[in-house]
Design goal:
alpha/beta, Rossmann fold, about 25% helix, 10 strands, 8-stranded mixed sheet
């Protein structure tokens, strides 16, 4: 009878990946943030509510890419304090194709912050290019643009804005404010304020940017104690001055978003916002 030799199955040992710079895991790093790490922020609101002023407090030097429907000397920068103007340079965007070209030059430039002021007019430039019309003429209405042209507009806008958002700089995108009616199938049924562009671009942009804030103004008020019928009560009265505010957190009726560490308390309204105040609100 032949002798049966038992075969022992060899156990295959997994080799450790070589500790070399080419491995993917070697690229993993600790999650840390520094105040010098750039971020992108959308700032929307009604005219003259302090949108450009907030950007003027960001790290300098700043490049303001102004775009106001073909106006050669937009007036947005008049609100910037004289002390800040010497650290800010302006360039007027007259053609939407200038934006990606500028983004290429900005990568190795001296600037620390770049701003598009404002998005609403830049959207008009893109639409004018698609339609082959003079952007200065305000003759276009929603019904004058075909659905296919709106789709092309949305695709081009995302491409242009992505070039800006992906820059290794602090970036702000300023826009006017628009109130969007709720969708028919919406469970909330609440109108929502956001950037004054198409619903598609507004939704994509607010989801892509790191932060989105809404600017608004309100009357300053002061409280004082007075006696009425022998009782001391507190009354509030207007001071005659105006304060500029930013609304920060997520909201059902605003396209706002403000990232912060879990557990950190965030006041929904920031009075006279600046870069330093915003940085303090988002830091640990």
């Amino acid at each position: 009878m032949p002798k049966v030799t038992r075969q022992v199955k060899k156990t295959r040992t997994r080799k450790k990946p070589p500790a070399e710079t080419g491995s993917l895991l070697s690229r993993a790093k600790a999650v840390e943030f520094d105040k010098d790490d750039p971020f992108s922020m959308g700032i929307f609101g009604l005219p003259a509510t302090g949108k450009t002023t907030v950007t003027s407090t960001f790290p300098k030097p700043i490049l303001m890419m102004t775009c106001s429907g073909g106006i050669k000397k937009p007036g947005e920068l008049r609100s910037i304090a004289k002390a800040d103007r010497k650290h800010i340079k302006q360039i007027v965007i007259e053609d939407c194709e200038q934006l990606p070209a500028l983004c290429e030059e900005l990568v190795d430039s001296e600037f620390k912050t770049v701003s598009l002021d404002h998005l609403t007019s830049f959207s008009d430039l893109v639409l004018a290019q698609i339609l082959g019309v003079d952007r200065v003429k305000p003759q276009l209405a929603w019904g004058d643009v075909q659905q296919q042209q709106w789709q092309k507009h949305g695709s081009l806008m995302k491409g242009f804005l992505r070039c800006l958002i992906e820059l290794p700089l602090f970036t702000t995108i300023i826009s006017h404010e628009r109130v969007f009616a709720p969708k028919e199938d919406s469970e909330l049924g609440v109108a929502k304020a956001g950037p004054a562009v198409t619903p598609t671009i507004a939704g994509w942009l607010t989801g892509t940017l790191d932060f989105n804030i809404q600017m608004f103004s309100r009357d300053c008020r002061e409280e004082r104690e007075v006696k009425v019928a022998g009782k001391t009560i507190t009354k509030s009265r207007k001071t005659g001055e105006t304060e500029f505010c930013a609304y920060l957190p997520l909201s059902e009726d605003r396209m706002t978003k403000f990232r912060k560490p879990r557990g950190k308390k965030l006041d929904p309204i920031m009075v006279n916002p600046t870069f330093e105040k915003l940085l303090e609100a988002m830091d640990d």
